[in-house]
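Lab notebook, design round three. We kept the backbone fixed and only want residue identities now. Task for the bench partner: fill in a sequence for the structure below.
Input structure tokens:
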């Protein structure tokens, strides 16, 4: 998977002609690190930060019914954006489901995005549309994963569903010399989602989606041999040498509806669960299993835990 980085300067959002030559391609290309996760993952993860979900804003209500409330966001009031060509509308389907629609007209091109968030299912994605001066429409969908939030600023990872490429959006560290247009649109849509739900709810939603995928991928997981009973060393070990037995235990642990922790101490977005399977699975009598998996549900490691 290719990895790209965008660092956005959101303090200057006047949209002058400096953006007219900005490519939709994201900024600097960097290689993805190969992460080695050992069984030493025992540290407590940082407490989840909260963001006040009580938004003080003036909304222009467009329409509403028993199920959906639709309104226009005053982008100048909310984000300090003084540009008549940038508009944002929100559909609130419930307390846990919203659609943020943004449009930006720039010279001969029209850019738009639909950011969808559903806390119950863990869905968080944005569909971006560009209509160029030839009238051609290009549609791209990215899954969105927030990795850090400071106030209303954030770091996020976007995964292109079609190409599988990984992008990083960073509004906290502003060092880029140019701002990709789509980055601006996505960033402000995400900022509204952060305002609406707060970090705890969004990270919890990501974890639910990743856990669901991990359950599906458990059958392909192979535990490191150092965690099998016939291995040497001081590693925690399962009381079996069978990979298939470990896979069944890991899947059982994932299906126990465990509490999910967001792992903030690795470069790649990941989650950890510790689940009691109700039987001895470790060589020292452990009945719990710790599992670490990434945002796609790929299981990095699993081992007995006290």
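Proposed sequence:
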């Amino acid at each position: 998977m290719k990895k790209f980085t965008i660092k956005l300067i959101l303090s200057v959002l006047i949209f002058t002609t400096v953006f007219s030559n900005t490519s939709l391609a994201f900024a600097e290309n960097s290689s993805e690190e190969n992460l080695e996760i050992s069984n030493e993952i025992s540290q407590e993860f940082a407490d989840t930060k909260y963001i006040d979900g009580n938004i003080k804003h003036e909304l222009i209500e467009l329409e509403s019914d028993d199920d959906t409330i639709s309104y226009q966001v005053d982008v100048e009031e909310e984000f300090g954006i003084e540009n008549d060509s940038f508009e944002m509308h929100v559909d609130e389907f419930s307390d846990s489901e919203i659609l943020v629609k943004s449009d930006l007209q720039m010279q001969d091109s029209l850019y738009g995005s639909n950011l969808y968030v559903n806390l119950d299912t863990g869905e968080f994605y944005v569909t971006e549309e560009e209509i160029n001066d030839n009238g051609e429409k290009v549609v791209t969908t990215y899954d969105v994963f927030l990795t850090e939030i400071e106030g209303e600023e954030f770091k996020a990872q976007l995964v292109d569903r079609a190409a599988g490429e990984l992008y990083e959006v960073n509004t906290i560290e502003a060092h880029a010399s140019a701002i990709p247009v789509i980055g601006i649109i996505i960033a402000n849509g995400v900022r509204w989602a952060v305002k609406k739900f707060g970090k705890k709810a969004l990270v919890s939603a990501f974890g639910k989606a990743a856990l669901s995928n991990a359950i599906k991928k458990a059958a392909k997981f192979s535990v490191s041999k150092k965690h099998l009973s016939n291995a040497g060393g001081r590693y925690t070990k399962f009381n079996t040498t069978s990979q298939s037995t470990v896979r069944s235990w890991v899947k059982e642990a994932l299906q126990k509806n465990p509490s999910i922790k967001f792992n903030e101490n690795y470069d790649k977005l990941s989650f950890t669960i510790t689940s009691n399977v109700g039987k001895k699975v470790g060589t020292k009598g452990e009945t719990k299993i710790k599992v670490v998996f990434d945002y796609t549900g790929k299981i990095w490691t699993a081992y007995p835990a006290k």
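Keep this in mind before ordering anything: Residues 2-60, 175-179 have pLDDT under 50 and may be disordered.
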